[in-house]
Structure formats: structure tokens, C-alpha cells
Amino acid sequence: MPPRFFCARWPGQPLPGIIFQEPIITYIQPLVKVQFIERLQNFELEAIAFCPGFGYHIGAMTRKPVKTTRPANGASDYDSAWKDVIEELFEPFLAFYFPHIHRDIDFSKGYTFLSKELRKIAPDGKVGNRYADELVKVYLKNGSTGYICIFIHVEVQGARDTDFLTRMYIYQYRIFDKFRQEGAEVISLAILTDEDPSYRPDEYRVSRWGFELKLKIPVVKLIDYRLDEVKKQELESSENPMAMVVRAHFKSQEIKKARPESKFSAKTDLIRQCYRRGYGKEQIKTLLKFIDWIIRLPDALEGKISDEIISIEEEYKMPYVTTWERRAKEEGVVLGKREGIIEEKTEIAKRLLRKGISLDIISEATGLSRSEVESLEIEQPVH
């Protein structure tokens, strides 16, 4: 028989709200009346009841087998990871991979990701393919042109692509045609993650009968940061968060066929490096998402990763309250305080305290911090 789970939710929360692996929910309120049965993404909700005394729902569930539609080699994981990195760390991205371009851009004027326009121009660039594409509108410091569209293409599957140069040429023209009436220049850039040092496609060319067409593309090969001594030293000394992305990429390739325990150790070490290098709060959250995307663990070990993050944040005194957003979305778990329900959570915490439930479990169940639960414990009458 599959293990049973229990859930609770307050008005306004999507199901299942908070999920418990142990039946501690029975300490809150017994089931009153079965109201409906609902199918969740990763759980089969057997029954749920409304508790009139507290204004929340509780229920019992079983976990369903999770069907995955991810492409082979985790391509969808990698393209999503790279898209997030480019969008959330755009300035460091250019400074690390294309410093000469970064120096010319006036970031004080802002920049805009043209995702909607790119989807119309290059529908193959959507999530789930072997590559991640982004189109960004930027402005130059010298003001020599209205704006520039930078097309960024990342080959994420790590293999030769015979259509790479043809696709780059087609996208270059489509983007140019879309924005040419506005006088925008279009620049295409590429990042290649494959392991073949001799594979360096950077020029599309057609030449015959006096006709000549040439497209030269600035290409960065991640493997150069492993093979080229100058770039290797640059990677080791760099404090740019994109250097951490490269290290994480190398590690994910290195442990691709390793045992789960080895992957857990590697993932923990990468997370610790993010904090040790002193990146900012938002940068760390982006890096943790990237690491989480590219190094997958069994559910049991993913739970331990969350514990490791808490321990590391306490060690480095960086209470960023980071979460694995992907796992929360997949499992439908909604954590944290909700406006207008603090009083209900406090009452539940008090009832659990009277039943002798540990502070950590109460904190997890209610979303209250441990210190808030401790303050309630002090308020309890002495028997």
C-alpha cells in the first residue's frame, strides 16, 4: 500500500496547502465531513473536510507515480536553467563571457527581454529543446544608434549540431527583418556547452559566382575554461556569479552517472561555494535554482538539501530563506505566512504544543518561525 500523506489549507490557499508525511494533522482537528475528491498533480486526494471551528480544510492523500515528459539527457532542465540565468544575471553574463560588449552598453538606460517577439520569430527556441534562446534590447553608451537587439543562443545538450550555423543565420535575418524599420542593429552571440574542443562553428558563409554572404558569430566554448590555462585561471579567480555557473556545469557533467550520494555531496559543495564567495541575496537564489535544475536528486535527498541550506545560512549568517521553487511548484506545496490567517496558525500551533509535538514539526506545519513557536510555548500555562 502506498504511503499516506496528510494536508491542510486555509481559505485562499490552493490545494493541498501544507503537506505532512506523518498523520500529525489528526492533532489539529478530526475529520468532520467529506466534501469532495480532487486530483492533484503529484498526489491523489482521497478526501478533504472543512473544519468549521478553525476555517481551514484538512485531508488525506497518497502520492501518485510521477510521469515525466522531460526530453532525454535532461535537455528541458538545462534550457530552463540557462534561460533563468541569462534573464536574472544579464549584466554579469555579458561581463563574464563578452566583456567587450558589456563595456559598450549603457545599463543605466535599462534593457528589455523581448521574449514574446522572439517566440514569434523563432518558435523552435521554446523550453524543451536542445538550446535556450533570448533576445534582449539594449542601448549603447555613445548613442550611435537607437538601440541594439542582442540574440543569445545557448546550445545546452552538449553535442554537435549540424544545423547550428544555418539556424543562427535564419534567426539573425528574421530578427533584423522584424526590427529594421526602427533602425535597430542585430547582434548574435552563442554559448556552446559541448565537450569537443575542435568543434568551433563561428561563420556562416555562401560564396559563388561573385556572390558572397558571410555571418561571423562571437562564440564562447565552456570547455575552454577547463582546457585553456589562461581561461582556467580566470575562472578560478573570478568572483562573477557566471563563473559559478560554469563550475556547476562542469560538476554536473562530471557526476552525470554517479551514485545519488555522490551527487548529493557535489550539490551541497556547490551550494556552500555560493555562500562562501559572498554573492548577493538575489544572485545566490538564482545560482541555487540553476544548480537545482542541472543536478537532480531523489526526493529523499532533495529534502536533505533543504536542511543543508538552512545549516549553511546559519553558518554564514545569511538568512535568505531560500527555497527550491521548482519542487514547490511541482508538488503544489505552498509554504509561508498568508495574509489574514496568522491568528488561525497561532491557534493551531498552540494546540500542537499541548499535544507535545516538536517545535520543528509545528514550525513546518504552520509556517511560523521556530522563534515564534517558542514564544507561544512560553505562553502555555504550567500544569
Quick overview of this protein structure:
With 383 residues, the chain is an alpha+beta fold. The chain is built from 15 helices and twelve strands.
Proportion in helices: 40-55%
N- to C-terminal distance: 41 Å
Helix and strand string, N-terminal first? EEEEEHHHEHEEHEEEEHHHHHHHHHH
β-sheet strand percentage: 15-25%
Describe this protein's structure.
The chain has 383 residues and is an alpha+beta fold. The chain has helices spanning 75-88, 90-97, 99-104, 115-121, 164-179, 224-227, 229-237, 241-254, 260-276, 281-294, 299-315, 325-331, 342-354, 359-366, 370-379; strands spanning 4-9, 18-20, 34-36, 43-51, 56-63, 112-113, 131-138, 148-155, 185-192, 203-208, 211-216, 219-221. It folds into three domains: 4-67 and 336-379, no CATH class; 72-221, no CATH class; 241-324. The strands form three sheets. Strands 2-1-5-4-3 form a five-stranded antiparallel sheet, with helices on one face. A five-stranded mixed sheet has the order 6-7-8-9-12. A two-stranded antiparallel ribbon has the order 10-11. The longest helix has 17 residues, at 260-276. The radius of gyration is 25 Å and the shape is elongated. The two termini are 41 Å apart. The model is unreliable at 1-5, 10-56, 62-76 and 321-340 (pLDDT under 50).
Blueprint of the fold:
Blueprint: E1 4-9, E2 18-20, E3 34-36, E4 43-51, E5 56-63, H1 75-88, H2 90-97, H3 99-104, E6 112-113, H4 115-121, E7 131-138, E8 148-155, H5 164-179, E9 185-192, E10 203-208, E11 211-216, E12 219-221, H6 224-227, H7 229-237, H8 241-254, H9 260-276, H10 281-294, H11 299-315, H12 325-331, H13 342-354, H14 359-366, H15 370-379
Parallel strand pairs: 8-9, 9-12
Antiparallel strand pairs: 1-2, 1-5, 3-4, 4-5, 6-7, 7-8, 10-11
Helix pairs in contact: 1-10, 8-9, 8-10, 9-10, 9-11, 13-14, 14-15
